[in-house]
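>> Question from a student workshop board

For tomorrow's exercise we were told to take the sequence and the ligand below, predict the bound structure, and bring the output to class. My setup keeps failing. Could a helper post the expected result so I can at least see what it should look like? The ligand is zinc ion.
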Amino acid sequence: MNPAIQYVRDNRKRHLDQLTELLRIPSISTDPEKKKAIGQAADWVSSRLKEAGCTKVKIHKTAGHPIVYGEWLGAPGKPTLLVYGHYDVQPVDPLELWHTPPFEPTLRDEKLYARGASDDKGQVIIHVNALEAHLQTTGSCPVNLKFVIEGEEEIGSPHLDPFIGENSKMLACDAVVVSDTAMFAKGVPSICYGLRGLAYLQIDLTGTDSDLHSGTFGGAVVNPANALVAMLASLKDANGKIKIPGFYDNVRKLKAKERKAFASLPHSDSRYKKALGAPALFGEKGYTTLERTYARPSLDINGIWSGFTGEGAKTVIPAKAHAKISMRLVPDQTAKEIARKVKKHLKAIAPKSVKIEVTPLHGGEAWLADTDHPALAAAGRAMKGAFGRKPVFVREGGSIPVVGTFADVLKVPCVLLGVGLNEDNIHAPNEKMDLDQFYRGNEAAVLLFEEMGAGTPGGKKKKK
Ligand code: BES
Ligand code: ZN
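>> Workshop helper replied:
Here is what the output should look like for this input. Compare the format with yours to find the bug.
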């Protein structure tokens, strides 16, 4: 038995207890009231990196939340792997839908329930456990490691690009690995080679100086809530096509080969629909479900509020109406271009009777990798070793803004070795991590370091 694998098996309980500790910290990056928790999470990660064997660990302050850096560079001549992940989490509302409190991690049915269990605390930690396993069993690690664990991923990583730009020497590596995605399905390991980008906007409409009695004034002025819903409804047609001028201008067409590959994945619309509890699926006509989520842009209202939403009835014309909307993007759209086009269009269609403000909140670029790189093959062997089956190649609909930056600035391949599951409820109530996925994830990381270590710096496999 591989001693490092044996080590992670022997230490399952301790690794789970440690993850539980981290999950107790409510590090919600978008909530200004959680600044203390953010600091605690950064401290926790930093201590754990030291404990696992990193020889240099530093918490880098930014104008926002800190970035934790750790390194173990004790294998000269071996490749260097940069592990990226995030210790921040999404907000927890609606709180009443959680079966147990989001920051009181609870075990049920071999799953650990807590905000961040899968996204991303439970995934990033597998690499720290793997470093520890190698060091504790052999006194060394097959690869050099650099960890970059940030606290602002869920708000678009606003301070990470400058950090990478300023520290590109310190971060030099042969490949980046990120565990912040899902496997295709339980029992179907996957390697992800594409992510969508994102452009996120807030829309604020103002009708009048104050709320009005809807009897006295109903019919005399425009209701900004009515205006907002009409505007939003017009952004898409009945076939799911987005009606914003120029929106599809830079969308890269799906190649027949890729469509064929997606079609061969073990996906069933009826199972998918059932798993979501959706009466029917809906999306852009002419594309399959996987094509739509992997490789076509989308537009969604993420939140909308105005007027009276309390119990009972109140006859009022609200003075203001608001919405948060976001567009998922694909190559070669850019977040800036789409934010500009959507803003221009919203301003053009707003009725003269309201004032409109459109504020871009954050964004990130789409990413698409070359599937032929040896680093991906190494990751594939590691996944097979841990999950018992050769992984399939997939793209994902979610976004990890920094992945494109790593590719552009560090000029190295990025391996997305996700061990989450689509049913983990990330960003939703009752987020969880399947324990079997976590334990196998630890093994996948152990094997990944071995597989990458068998190559030479630069990524080529050593000739035997
Ligand atoms: N882990 C997700 C990204 C993800 C989710 C990738 C599902 C693939 C499948 C990540 O933490 C995340 O949620 N990112 C944000 C980024 C955004 C705020 C710029 C996202 O996708 O909404
Ligand atoms: Zn997330």
